[in-house]
C-alpha cells in the first residue's frame, strides 16, 4: 500500500515512522510520502488560503494551490516527484527475522484490491468534521486499497470546487474521526492511517487479535487481564484459568455484550443476538463467572 499526505505541516506526520506503521514501512508493506503543500503555493508569500466568499470568520484553502498539488501527486510529477518516502524511525530487523521464521509472508509488493468493483480511481481521503463518520468497517475496506492520498485541510477547510473537480480522477471520501473539531486534518490522518495500515495483510502479527478487536463483531471488546493472578488483592477472573477454551470464549462474549450495553447501547440494535446473549443482558452478568 502507498499513502500520500498533502499538508502544510509535514512534521505532524513523523509519528507514522514509529511502532507498527514504521515496521510496515521497513518491511516494504507500506510506503508513505508526505508532501509540503507550500511547494505548490506561488509567490514569495506562498499563501495557501484566502477569506471565505460571502464573508465570515476564518480562511479557506485555495483551489489554485490544491488543484495542481493533487494533479502532481496523482501523476508523480512536479514537486511530488521529488518526495522521498518516510523511513522507519527504528530498525526492526530482529523482529522481521522472527516474523519470517514464524511464516509471515515475504516483503510484499503493494498488494491491494480496487475500491468499488471496476473503479480504478485511487482513494482521496479528506478529513473534516463535516465528513461522514470514519468507522472500523471503512478501515477494513480501505486496508485493501493499493493507494490512498490524504488531503489535510486547515482553517475553515478546502474550497469545495477542489473536491468536486478531483472526483473525476479520485474516489473522494470526506470523513470525520469524531464529533469534535481539531485545528486541522493532520491528527485525523494519523488516526486513520494507523487504523487502516494495521489491517493491511501481514502488518499485524497475530491475525486473531484484530478479528477480536472492538467493533469487528459490532461489540466493544471486554476487559483483559495478565499475570499475576492476584494484584493488590484483586483477582483476575477464575474462568480465565479454567483451561476450558469454550467457557473462556463464552465469558469473553458475555463481557463484550455487557460492556457494550453499558457504554454504547445503540450498537446492540444492529446485532443478531441469540437467546443466550439476551439472557446475559437481562441478568446483567455472565453465567461463566
Ligand atoms: N478536522 C478537524 N476536525 C476533524 C475531525 N473531527 N475529523 C476529521 N478531520 C477533522
Please outline what is shown here.
Helix content is 32%, strand content 15%.
Fold topology:
Elements: E1 2-7, H1 19-26, E2 31-36, E3 49-50, E4 60-61, H2 63-75, H3 78-81, H4 93-101, E5 123-133, H5 136-142, E6 147-151, H6 160-166, E7 171-176, H7 186-197, H8 207-211, E8 230-231, E9 234-235, H9 245-263, H10 275-283
Parallel strand pairs: 1-2, 1-6, 5-6, 5-7
Antiparallel strand pairs: 3-4, 8-9
Helix pairs in contact: 2-6, 5-7
Adenine is lined by residues 127-129, 176-178, 180-182, 185, 188.
Structure, described:
The chain has helices at residues 19-26, 63-75, 78-81, 93-101, 136-142, 160-166, 186-197, 207-211, 245-263, 275-283, and strands at residues 2-7, 31-36, 49-50, 60-61, 123-133, 147-151, 171-176, 230-231, 234-235. The chain has a 5-stranded parallel beta sheet. A two-stranded antiparallel sheet has the order 3-4. A two-stranded antiparallel ribbon has the order 8-9. Helix 2 runs parallel beside helix 6 (160-166) and helix 5 (136-142) packs across helix 7. The chain is of the alpha/beta class and 289 residues long. It has 10 helices and 9 strands. The protein folds into 2 domains: 2-92 and 114-205, Alpha/beta knot (3-Layer(aba) Sandwich); 206-288, tRNA(m1g37)methyltransferase, domain 2 (Trp Operon Repressor, Chain A), CATH 1.10.1270.20. Mean pLDDT is 90; it is low at 97-113. The chain binds adenine. Adenine binds at residues 127-129, 176-178, 180-182, 185, 188. Residues 1-75, 119-268 form the tRNA methyltransferase TRMD/TRM10-type domain. One of its GO terms (cellular component) is cytosol. InterPro entries: Alpha/beta_knot_MTases, tRNA_m1G_MeTrfase_C_sf, tRNA_m1G_MeTrfase_TrmD, tRNA_m1G_MTases_N, tRNA_MeTrfase_TRMD/TRM10. Pfam families: tRNA_m1G_MT (PF01746). It comes from Corynebacterium sphenisci DSM 44792.
